[in-house]
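[09:14] KT: can someone run the structure on this one? pasting the chain below
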Amino acid sequence: MSRVTGYGLRVFDLTLALVLLVLLAPPCSARALWGWVRTGRLFDRETQIGHEHRPFVRLRFAGPQLGRGLAVLFNILRGDMAFAGPRPLSMGKASAVPAVAALRFSVRPGLFSPYLLQQRTGIAHDPESVLDRQFVENLSVRASLGLILRSLLAVLLGGGERPTPPMLDFFGVPIVNTTMDEALDWIAARAVRSSPGDEGGEKSLLAFVNPDCLNIAYTHERYRAVLRRATRVLPDGIGLKIGCRIRGLGLAANVNGTDLFPRLCERAARDGFSLFLLGAHPGIAERVAENMRARCPDLLIAGTQHGYFSLDEEGAIIDRINLSGARVLLVAFGVPRQELWLADHHDRLMPPVRMGVGGLFDFYSGRISRAPLWLREIGLEWVWRLAQEPGRMWRRYILGNPLFLYRVWRQARQEARR
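[09:31] RB: done, structure tokens below
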């Protein structure tokens, strides 16, 4: 970071902190007085590690109640912290930071950090050190302001801390409340557990559900039954997080298939198991295979097949999937057709892990661009999808999202009466 950039950032932080202290002087004074009356002190103090590994005292107004965090404005004013930057660490956590992540200490720690932002919207799938490095390398007043605004929107979306149960239930569909890393470990373990061609091996159906899927399952009995029998169902999309909030629950992570797929390819290349790509328009699956092999040269794609085949061709395609030795079968037919097809052919298919992935191939073939990260960080990826394909997506989002939230609200009310 240049000296000019550093000076500009400091001016930005000082100006914003002074403006906020003036505007918030009455509530800050009242909060400080209330803490002093209740505890006999104005501030609670915590030693943290900041710029250039220097310790500083993080201030919070005394007492556990609302508003204690406003005291951080004094830390920003005196230069201990910035509004945007890597999150401040305790002395113990700072000492455990690896050398490759030392860049985070080259700037002041931030009240808002890229990791905490993505954690709030459930997409913090990359290591914190990676997110910090990317932010520091591109640090500017504009980047800081953008992070602050996105973080404020995410706070409104995420709300406070809530209990995070291991299982969720929406409309009778059990959903595993887990993280991306755990989901990848689960898939990899089952992909390599049995020998190729072992008919007695465990066969696992993995499904992803977003609000649209759950709306379909609400009235589609057979699809709902397949989801209930699936080995695992994972939460996909910001709508599930909002639904959890309505019910007073926390969502561990947004474990969507689009974010999972490149990580699955990296894991498959590392562990040596292969994938079969089935579905989408002719040529799409092949293009996905080419693109992912370019990203992961050791990746084994056992085969590809478009989804526009006849019933007469189905048997030969299943035989080709089985003979390929693929350990993971990804099917992109769309919901609910892909899950119903996998259920219909559960016994005949040999790959130990099979999953429906919706429109995922369109993204990784390059046919459809994915929403930029800043939109995903504030939970508005669906707006991008709607803008790309309004004729196909308007019912799902304009009508479907409010319908899903209404049904969740009704479910929450019924649970509250019990």
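[09:33] KT: thanks! Residues 167-377 form one domain.
[09:34] RB: yep, looked fine to me
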